[in-house]
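[Help] Beginner question about ligand-bound structures

Sorry if this is basic. My supervisor gave me a protein sequence and a SMILES string for adenosine-5'-triphosphate and asked me to "get the holo structure". I don't really know what that means in practice or what format the answer should be in. Inputs are pasted below exactly as I got them.
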Amino acid sequence: MKSLMEIRDLSVEIGARGRKIRWTSILNHINLSLEQGEVLGLVGESGCGKTMTVLALMGLLPPGGRIAGGSIRFMDRDLSGLSPKELAKIRGKHISMIFQEPMTSLDPLMTIGEQIREILARHEGLKGAANKEKCLHLLQTVHIPEPGKIYHCHPFRLSGGMRQRVMIAMALACEPELIIADEPTTALDVTTQAQILDLFNEIRSRTRMSFIFVTHDLGVIAEIADRTSVMYAGYVVEECSVAALFRSPAHPYTYGLMRSRMGRRNSNRDQLYSIPGSVPAPGNMPGGCPFAPRCQLAAARCSREIPPLAEIHAGHRVRCWRQVI
Ligand SMILES: Nc1ncnc2c1ncn2[C@@H]1O[C@H](COP(=O)(O)OP(=O)(O)OP(=O)(O)O)[C@@H](O)[C@H]1O
Ligand SMILES: [Mg+2]
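Answer (accepted):
No worries, everyone starts somewhere. Holo just means with the ligand present. The predicted complex, written as structure tokens, is below.
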């Protein structure tokens, strides 16, 4: 398969203003790759750096953020060398993004039809009847009932699930090569969440689009992803196929995530499990492996040296001394 995106050794820092700017590492030597048609799941607890990773990829780091090293290749171009204008062009045409809360991306004052038509006009140059036809077709594609009626509605009239369907229609509008979805189902109830995941699966089976799916939920990963990268405290700590993730998770952190998920599904409250402690804040990282203070398997070396992301089987990499010594 053809590689669509390749992030190598990406490091990102955020600067805090003082007399002198103090830089704090947020992402450390991130490696991610994505092939055409593939769905990559990015998973980890809150604050692990999932959103920062996709924002860096899109050239949308928050103010004060900068790429401190590494490269981002997308469609055979190095994105880290592009100007903001060139990046904006790539985002519009080749990469679309869907966020957790659709209301932050939808304009409350414009109807659904107006918003989708604007995208089609800007990116596809579609006008008049052809534009409206494509807009209605997109609403149908994401299974919005009565698209002709929804077309004239303002976003606040729609349920959360319907709004997320509109966001997906907007993301599909310019037929991008890559859709990045950052926790797109987290704010939805379980039934709606399942329906939206079905919709994503349907879209990917019909198109050759690739997806990066950001979530803190391993259940979502199981439903949707081909491969997964587990993030912890600004590092990728494990990377493998979804089958390998569930069959033989190798990093103690991944194992902990798995165990807490099983505990949630089990009705016996005695079996509820959560990983002790919390994710260290950037700028307050322990020496050595960032997970060592929470790790039951930690040995002396773990709090001294950061392990490399080492391949333990073909296509299965893990950043853990206990797996490689
Ligand atoms: N604008 C910002 N300025 C400074 N630090 C930030 C900013 N946004 C995020 N951070 C920090 O960067 C780190 C990574 O945050 P990020 O939002 O990528 O996490 P996440 O994995 O997406 O978490 P969540 O699951 O809560 O969305 C966190 O420690 C966070 O506090
Ligand atoms: Mg996030």
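A couple of things worth pointing out: The first strand starts at residue 3 and ends at 16. The longest helix spans residues 190-206. Feel free to follow up in the thread.
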